[in-house]
Specification:
72 residues, alpha+beta, 1 helix
Length: 72
């Protein structure tokens, strides 16, 4: 389980994950760090399989998260 949702009047993002979700997130970060560019994490409704359709608290999560590695 891995989900992202907005909190604090859209001033913060909360990430909820279990052990499998932590692995998905860490793998995505390692991939983008190694190869550069960006990765998309999506819910099944958005054509992916990395993100959960609901948060553990029954909220609607973000359907897509894009992680971009910006080289300084």
């Amino acid at each position: 389980m891995l989900s992202f949702h907005m909190t604090n009047s859209a001033k913060a993002i909360q990430i909820d994950c279990d052990e499998e979700g932590m692995g998905i997130l860490l793998d995505a970060l390692a991939r983008v760090r190694t190869y550069g560019g960006h990765v998309h994490l999506c819910t099944p409704a958005n054509g992916g399989h990395e993100l959960s359709e609901t948060t553990p608290f029954g909220q609607n999560p973000l359907g897509e998260v894009i992680i971009t590695y910006v080289h300084e």
